[in-house]
Amino acid sequence: MSESVQADVAIIGGGMVGASLALALADSGLATVLVEGIPPGSQGQPSFDDRTTALGNASRRIFEALRVWPDMRSAAAAITTIHVSDAGRFGFARLHAREQGIDAFGYVVPNRVIGAALWRRLQQCQHVRVCAPARPEQVRIESDRVVITLAPGRGSGSPPVHIEARLAVGADGAHSMLRASAGIDARIEDYEQVAVIANVRADRAHDGTAYERFTPTGPVAVLPLKDGSYGVIWTARPERAAEILALDDRSFLRELQERFGWRAGAFIRAGVRASYPLKLTRAATTLSERSVLIGNAAQSLHPIAGQGFNLGLRDAAMLAERLVGSPGDPGSRETLEQFGRWREGDRSGVTRFTDGLVKLFGDTRPGVGAARNIGLLLFDLLPPAKSALARVSAGFAGPIPRLARGLTIRP
Questions:
Q1: Contact assessment for residue 57 and residue 106, using Cβ atoms and an 8 Å cutoff
Q2: Distance of alpha carbon 64 from alpha carbon 23, whole angstroms
Q3: Rounded CA separation 317/297 (Å)
Q4: Which end of the chain has less Cβ packing within 10 Å, N or C?
Q5: 219 pLDDT band (50/70/90 cuts)?
Q6: What CA dihedral angle connects 52, 55, 59 and 60, to 10 degrees?
Q7: Tens digits of per-residue pLDDT, 290-318?
Q8: Which residues are within 8 A (CB) of 265 and not within 5 positions of it... i.e. 6 or more apart?
Q9: Cβ–Cβ contacts within 10 Å for residue 44, how many?
Q10: This prediction's pTM
Q11: Which of 138, 140, 141, 164 is closest to 151 using CA atoms?
């Protein structure tokens, strides 16, 4: 026997963006179903892996509004200073939160903590139905509804479920099934880079500084963690990344020190290393018949500058605001097109910004390096430029979601 479920909104993908949207809609009066293929807490769920996420202040305010920030705060390390440098050259730039009149530029939080906080809150919501583990086996998009047939997760013992929703939201990552079902193309640019991630400890505790070090083989980010150690994102060509992963801890720390320098002190201990390939994936459109894409299903970015998740979370917050503020059919063309207009400026701006940084600091043509360094020095001396960058976390263009401004989702 199969079960039939009627819903206003069906969210495919229960990672950090999809779960956030479900929470934002929990008290909206819209019947919401969240579909996730991997059980919460599983090692295979990206929202519960060993990576960390740098949350901008707008993202922190969204999480405060969703009542999950208290469960993250104790594991959150404040970023009070940002230090950007170009290896082998004299240019660098520094931003201090106090100069911008704020306590911190953002907070570094382990993905496991974010995912656990979101799903703990979801389990308390009576108005969101969670189907997990379950995967969409078939998605059929019609003029008045989207029909999603779920295959229950292995070992769940649950019967198949057929969901009929007025709106389907793809929050299912860079290889989105909903995007494919809706016939939306995606442009993929392979940066031919791999990010090697690890936690390392230095011989002194951090002071709240987040470092971005650009090297000839790719950027190295060193981010402060709550326990006084650092999270490292070391970007390299695939063959070099394989060599880094194969190093013993002593050799890994030595090579990281040579690549990064001594600003954070001497690195003395390394944790488990992992890696993932880096590509720019951008959907040709985020909208189709009764379907909308958010987060990595809409755009998957290079981790440089730490903007990807923050952008996806603003997608979720603005979509929830649009759905709550539009009585009637949540999957109507008018509702979705307005959401698309609201988000396009921010989405395009952040994508160009991150892609431009990758290519600017990867450009080895004669004279480009010197120009970069002059630019960094000028940036370090110009308060207006620093203020503009400090505001990036609120969004590049278009309206800022109410939740990101510390307001309720309803006017």
A1: yes
A2: 12
A3: 16
A4: N
A5: confident
A6: 100
A7: 999 999 999 998 887 678 899 999 999 99
A8: 202, 203, 204
A9: 10
A10: 0.89
A11: 138
Per-residue pLDDT tens for 175-213?
A: 999 999 999 999 999 989 999 999 999 999 899 999 988
Could you give the strand order of the β-sheet that contains 106-110, starting from the edge strand earlier in sequence?
52-56, 106-110, 77-79
- Of 11, 10, 21, whose CA–CA distance to 316 is shortest? 21
**Tokens describing residue 13:** 């993908």
Instruction: For the beta carbon of residue 15, count every other beta carbon within 10 angstroms.
Output: 24
In the block, residue with structure tokens 């006017």: 411
What is the C-alpha separation between 106 and 389, in angstroms, rounded? 13
- pLDDT tens-place string over residues 32-77: 999 998 877 666 666 566 788 999 899 999 999 999 999 999 999 9
| Among the listed residues 48, 27, 240, 34, the one whose alpha carbon sits nearest the alpha carbon of residue 131 | 34
Pairing of strands 291-293, 161-170: parallel
Locate 108 and state its tokens: 């570094």
Question: Is 56 in contact with 158 (CB distance < 8 Å)?
Answer: no
First-last CA distance in the chain: 44
Query: Can you read off the two tokens belonging to residue 187?
Result: 């442009």
Q: Under 8 Å CB-to-CB from 267, ≥6 apart: which residues?
A: 200, 201, 202, 203, 253, 256, 257
Counting every residue written for the chain, the total comes to 411
* 305, 355 contact by CB (below 8 A): no
Provide the 3-class DSSP secondary structure of residue 300: strand
Tokens of 206: 């951090």
Contacts 24+ apart (CB under 8 A), 248-257: 252/198, 253/200, 256/200, 256/220, 256/232
Which residue would you say has higher pLDDT here, 374 or 63? 63
Residue 260, C-beta contacts closer than 8 angstroms, at least 6 positions apart: 211, 213, 220, 222
pLDDT (mean) for 353-372: 60
Query: Which amino acid, one-letter code, is at 289?
Result: E
Pair of tokens at residue 247: 């190093």
Kindly give, in sequence order, each residue whose CB lies less than 8 Å from that of residue 167, ignoring residues fewer than 6 positions away: 8, 9, 10, 146, 290, 291, 292, 323, 330, 331, 336
Contact residues for 140 (Cβ-Cβ < 8 A; gap 6+) = 146, 147, 148, 181
Torsion, Cα 232 238 243 246, to 10 degrees, reads 70
User: Would you list the DSSP string of 99-125?
Assistant: GGTSS-SEEEEEHHHHHHHHHHHHTT-
Cα 120 from chain centre: 20
